[in-house]
Specification:
The protein is mainly beta and 91 residues long. It is built from one helix and seven strands.
Length: 91
């Protein structure tokens, strides 16, 4: 399973392969809608901290693809920076 996260800033930020450390379970509503999706990026070397802090990600559109297939589309609603970066995406 290869994940790719694209955040539509200018220019767009793309994280793929090992950079996407994990994709949390989506919290589906009763009607099957996926209202949010946590995505964790590897930041062990701290390289993403400056990039993401400067990019002002909040409310930018984001798409998560698995093996090229769109699995979630929404906007970045929260960012937690540390040894890993957790992005909370909401549809």
């Amino acid at each position: 399973m290869l994940f790719e996260l694209t955040i539509f800033t200018v220019p767009p930020l793309v994280f793929e392969g090992a950079a996407v450390a994990s994709v949390g379970a989506s919290n589906a509503s009763i009607n099957g809608e996926l209202p949010n999706m946590p995505v964790t990026l590897d930041n062990a070397r701290g390289e993403l901290t400056q990039v993401l802090a400067a990019a002002n990600l909040l409310r930018h559109r984001a798409e998560l693809r698995q093996d090229g297939v769109l699995v979630f589309a929404g906007a970045v609603q929260a960012v937690a920076l540390g040894a890993s970066v957790v992005l909370d995406l909401e549809s």
